[in-house]
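Backbone shape codes
____________________
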Amino acid sequence: MKRPHALPAYTAIALAVLFPVYWIPTLLAGESSLMAAYRADVMRLSAMDLLFVLIGAMEIYVYLGLRRVLEDRLHGGLPATLLLLMAIVVGVFHATVLFDVVLNVGPTLAQPLQERLVWASAAVTIGGLFVYSVLGVVLSIALLVKAAELPALLKVFAGLLVLACLLQLTVVLGLFNVVLFPVILLVLAVFFMRGGHEVEVV
């Protein structure tokens, strides 16, 4: 494995493990609805919030690592731009942890203000997931337009990514991404381990 690609590969593997470690307990919190579970999560600050920040940073790093491979081999292009945008959206999505901090650190806020902050956090989260999903679909299409010229691993990555993003757009079916997203990350890890040398034209 080439040295520049080693860390993104190991990061993708670690993220594939940590992603379900965070999301499975969060989604199975036993609340009556997704919004109730989300409110309960925002209204408490714990070690899980640190894990949330960590997996966000790791996801950004993996996308930027893939972007560097595409830039080196393809001299930029639409896929590289889309990966940068996806990394930014992931950063905004995981920055919603700041709402948790505001609600749990310092003086107690009035109930109406707490509710507004919870809903503001939810709006940023839903908006971020929507934008990410749209960008992911466009990225997948950009990669699959010339599927005959793609290495097998990038075809698999693009196919799984478009499926994950379409599931995410349905919201409810997006729960399956707890399993699907780690698989996508492992595909990327193998791609990085091969040094990205298979990339030629997209």
User: Anything to note?
Assistant: Residues 111-144 form the longest helix (34 residues).
